[in-house]
Amino acid sequence: MILFFVAVGLLLLGYFTYSKVIEKIWGIDENRITPAIKYADGVDFVKMPLWRIFLIQFLNIAGLGPVFGAILGAVYGPVALLWIVFGCIFAGGVHDYLTGMISLKFKGKSIVYITEKLFGKHFKTLFLIFYLTLLLLLGTVFAVNPAKMIADLSHTPLTLWIVIVFTYYFLTTLMPVDKIIGKVYPYFAALLLVMTVAVMVMLFKSGLPFYPQMTFNNLHPENIGIFPMLFITIACGAISGFHATQSPIMARCLPNERDGRIIFYGAMVTEGIIALIWATLAIAFFHNSSGLFEAIKASGQGGVVSVISTSLLGKIGGALTILSIVALSITSGGSAFRSIRLTVTDFLNLKNQNNLKRLLLTAVILSCGVILSRLNYTTLWQYFGWANQALSALVLWTLTYYLRKKSKFYFITLIPALFMTAVVVSYIFQDKIGFNLQPYIANSIGIVSTIVLLVVFYLTKGHKKK
User: Fold this and answer.
1) Long-range contact set of residues 398-402: C-beta below 8 Å, sequence gap at least 24
2) Which of 218, 213, 177, 209 lies closest to 41 in space, CA to CA?
3) 156-170, 364-378, 404-418 — which is least confidently predicted?
4) pLDDT(464) > 50
5) Which CATH architecture best describes the domain 32-378?
């Protein structure tokens, strides 16, 4: 129990201390007019109250990651909490804050637009393809999974719910940001926070030991190595490339630059706490890693959530908890497709006020998602997990290059960029979705590749601040 409170305390300490360091290094200008005001269009650039933006940002970035990823990562034991805490403070929070603030600086544009300004059109095209593919995978995964959860809960056809979810996605992608997203998302976020806290309170009352196997050794029943697997398994809650696609959505609604720290870094810390809670619930409820592992194999992370929430909160409380997680997934999926529309709109230099073009573009994007939804869900999730963390590494390198170009202290992004590069390269060479090499060979390739990239970075001609 003490470990849990220490972990939460460290996350809060990170917000109240390290986030201020990052803000100071970046340098805010409270007098600068934000895109929400300067480019107000009633569709995507819409100033909203701070509390709404915070809850929307939190819901947008969360997805299933801080719940499903944390449960899967908990199989490794309490060591998962270390990654959530230190990953969130020194990698995820920095990643999210700077992607939001750099978007503010570049007219609320996406990271794809920013890469063109830094690296040129050729790199931008390659990055755009990777970026859009990732968002399509994520949007589709976040459509299929909640549809399956609702279908199982209501004993109704899965196809029906997939159609309903994609219809909802169409509306949230098309309509002005202050309509469905601005009005509904904050309440979904509040429901998720309330139900998560409620489950945790009931765990306290249950008397179950929080960490029956209190060790930071690897407890995975199949002895799968912590590196790099844990750092791919737990993304949201520690660091997730997907967040870089969401920050520009709220950057277009932010009233003042001083609000960036609470919106971008603060939402990441909140997500980290959610991940801590669900990792702890999974470890405590199933008594040991083997029990949790068998439960996941039997019914998946969705089944684990259902068993834990229903057992601790009863049928009604369990249903509300499941509903909050379904909403979490659906809203993040809808935001993923909206981010695709914004990115393509920027790429094609379209005007948001043109309703017909926005309608046609939305229809094309959602059609791609519907086609992907017919593929195997497990395969989609495996490739998304790697691509998501690969994006975080690419974004961190982009931010590092920008900070160096502006003569700022770039080590705040360089160090996590190096770590995540080693993770994603090692993973793709080791896992069966990649080259399926022996761990020591794959990890060696990952480390050498990271060193080579670092050398290339320092050999690249630097730029002076304009």
Assistant:
1) 398/111, 398/114, 398/115, 398/118, 398/119, 399/95, 399/98, 399/99, 399/102, 400/457, 401/118, 401/119, 401/457, 401/460, 402/102, 402/114, 402/118
2) 177
3) 364-378
4) no
5) Up-down Bundle (1.20)
pTM above 0.85, yes or no: yes
Average pLDDT on 89-106 reads 97
Hey, which of 52-66, 81-95, 173-187 has the most confident mean pLDDT? 81-95
Nearest to 342 by CA among 174, 130, 166: 174
**Class of residue 311 by CB neighbours under 10 A (exposed 0-12, middle 13-18, buried 19+):** middle
Instruction: Calculate what percentage of the chain has a pLDDT beyond 70.
Output: 97
**Spatial distance between the Cα atoms of 248 and 263, rounded to a whole number of angstroms:** 12
Both structure tokens of 417: 């960029």
Q: Spell out a b/e string for 392-425, using b for 16 or more CB atoms within 10 Å of the CB, else e.
A: bbbbbbbbbbbbbeeebebebbbebbbbbbbbbb
Mean pLDDT, rounded, of the chain: 93
Name the residue with higher pLDDT: 309 or 302.
Answer: 309
Query: Domain segments of the chain: what residues?
Result: 32-378
Report how far apart, in Å, the C-alpha atoms of 193 and of each of 42, 273, 310, 316, 327 are: 29, 10, 17, 17, 12
Q: Distance of CA 121 to CAs 22, 34, 115, 341, 464, Å?
A: 29, 26, 8, 20, 21
Q: Can you read off the two tokens belonging to residue 40? A: 């107000």
pLDDT band at 193 (very low <50, low <70, confident <90, very high): very high
Per-residue pLDDT, averaged over 281-302, amounts to 94
User: How far apart (Å, rounded) are the C-alpha atoms in residues 335 and 420?
Assistant: 25
* Structure tokens given for 345: 């709109």
CA distances, 42 to each of 57, 213, 313, 352 (Å)? 19, 54, 42, 9
Query: Nearest 5°: CA angle at 444, between 442 and 447?
Result: 110
pLDDT in tens, 124-183: 888 999 999 889 988 988 888 888 878 887 889 999 999 999 999 999 999 999 999 999
**Which residue is listed with tokens 């996406």?**
110
Please calculate the CA angle 328-102-450 and round it to the nearest 5 degrees.
Answer: 85
Mean pLDDT, range 223-229, rounded to an integer: 96
Contacts within 8 Å (CB) and 24+ apart, 185-188: 185/55, 185/56, 185/59, 185/60, 185/331, 186/51, 186/52, 186/55, 186/56, 186/59, 188/59, 188/324, 188/327, 188/328, 188/331
From the number of C-beta atoms within 10 Å of its C-beta (0-12, 13-18, 19+), residue 9 rates as exposed
What is the DSSP track for 349-380?
A: T--TT-HHHHHHHHHHHHHHHHHHTTS-HHHH
